[in-house]
Hints:
Layout: H1 4-7, H2 10-16, E1 28-32, E2 35-38, E3 43-46, H3 49-52, H4 61-71, H5 84-95, E4 101-105, H6 108-126, E5 133-137, H7 146-151, H8 155-158, E6 168-171, H9 176-182, E7 187-193, E8 195-196, E9 202-203, H10 206-218, E10 222-226, E11 250-253, E12 264-268, H11 270-273, H12 289-302, H13 305-329, E13 332-338, E14 341-346, H14 354-364, E15 366-367, E16 369-371, E17 375-378, H15 386-404
Parallel strand pairs: 3-15, 5-6, 5-7, 7-10, 10-11
Antiparallel strand pairs: 1-2, 2-3, 4-12, 8-9, 11-12, 13-14, 14-17, 16-17
Helix pairs in contact: 4-12, 5-12, 13-15, 14-15
Bound molecules: pyridoxal-5'-phosphate.
Amino acid sequence: MISKKTLITRDNFDKLILPFYNPVSFIPVKGKGSRIWDQDGKEYIDFSGGIAVTSLGHCHSLLNKALKKQSKMLWHVSNFFTNEPTLKLAKKLTSFSFASKVFFANSGAEANEAAFKLARYYSCKRYNLKKNKIISFYNSFHGRTFFTVSVGGQSKYSDSFGPKPSGIIHASFNDINTVKNLINEHVCAIVVELIQGEGGIIPATKSFIKELRLLCNQHNIILIFDEIQTGIGRTGKLFSYEHYGVTPDILTLAKSLGGGFPISAMLATDEIASVIKVGIHGTTYGGNPLACAIAESVIDIVNTEKVLSGVEKKFKQIVFELNIINKHFNIFEEIRGRGLLIGIVLKSKYSYKIREILKFSFLEGVIFLTAGNNVIRLAPSLIISKIDIIEGMKRFHRALERCLF
Ligand SMILES: *Cc1c(COP(=O)(O)O)cnc(C)c1O
């Protein structure tokens, strides 16, 4: 028998796992709230939130309860059937949003894949086969299937895989004139992140989103909001579009929706839904009862005044602490983002240090992510405590001291 202790090492990752990733050297084994423990029992404060996924921290008691309850009822039946958790979750997502109907899948990329296919299908059926171009934005991220990664605006992720899907064009984010220049009768959809997440925590301006909506209305174009990173309370509203006073025709969700359990959703209006016929798209696991039961519990907890207004308070507290740190070190160019999706932009002369800053932060017991190439990203639990924020920032201060001096 292979002993567990010798098997679970970073070296064995290199031996056993295809090298798409380069994980950090410690291996988390336990989490509670915003704290994580590694194999050696060392404790960390988690500002990464599993990349904006563990929206209620680790092992939240009510999510555990929902998981346990559903696990004794029914795990999986496939879409040959419908099921109770699917319908209950869909009811909540539609009653709290612009949408009338929902499609469930398992990951962000799958929700976007469905959205892009549906946008083209709709335009093909409503207008003509030539109305099939999708406009997206440079620096955007929409997932890693070949269609979604090609729609994404970072060619480093889509190059070297052979011919790309066609009919995709890119405009400049927050620059409406570049969009206007690309518009013609062949455009069927515009897809946009309300905050470019992977691209470096860059919020869309209100006027940009409003103008996109107007353009879409004028030219019969479907507006898709990719809220996979910004949705489900992340910015202090259940959906980030609520900050903009604009609704999309299609919206995609994943990450925070499952609180750590894989699930995604595509929300759409009745008009978009009207062209759909049985069998034109599908997935085996979508609407899985276990996933939906957990997501319903996530929404019940997040969609409360207490949690949503808490997000704004925690944003202010974190920015306050970061400003104090920056008074000391003077290395941040800007702190940007909204709610608990925060980007610390490093001054250009320090950007080469970003990996080291993260490494020293791990050593001090605090976990951050990166976004773009010079942004430290924070996407913690929406209910991270004041104590954890203060302690985390203390550790960050110590990490910077070790890294910079
Ligand atoms: C993470 C992310 C995706 C992809 O989600 P996966 O679950 O990794 O497929 C798509 N769009 C945005 C905005 C994201 O942040």
